[in-house]
Backbone:
């Protein structure tokens, strides 16, 4: 189990930086005009998660642990940056990340 977690660590760090730095940068830089962009953050978080999970799957093969970790990292974001109704993005991130991991696995097996 430790080896599996160690393989996911670089990708998980990228996801953490993307989840937490983007809202902070938007609020600091745009202040009043960030409302429209701020509403698009969950979609951007999904894209970052899917991208990292795709490259994880392409390099290491299919492992559902990466999808679970990427959705669990999003959990504090719900209460820090969004309102509690954003919990619906948690299963969406988990499912789409899982899909991205397995698509990456297909690319690993087909295109070495």
Residues:
């Amino acid at each position: 189990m430790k080896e599996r977690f160690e393989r996911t660590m670089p990708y998980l760090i990228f996801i953490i930086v993307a989840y937490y730095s983007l809202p902070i940068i938007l609020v600091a830089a745009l202040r009043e005009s960030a409302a429209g962009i701020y509403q698009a953050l969950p979609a951007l978080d999904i894209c970052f998660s899917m991208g990292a999970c795709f490259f994880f799957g392409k390099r290491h093969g299919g492992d559902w642990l990466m999808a679970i970790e990427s959705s669990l990292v999003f959990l504090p974001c719900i209460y820090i940056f969004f309102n509690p109704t954003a919990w619906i993005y948690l299963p969406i991130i988990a499912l789409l990340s899982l899909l991205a991991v397995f698509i990456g696995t297909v690319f690993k097996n087909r295109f070495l």
About this structure: The chain has a mean pLDDT of 86.
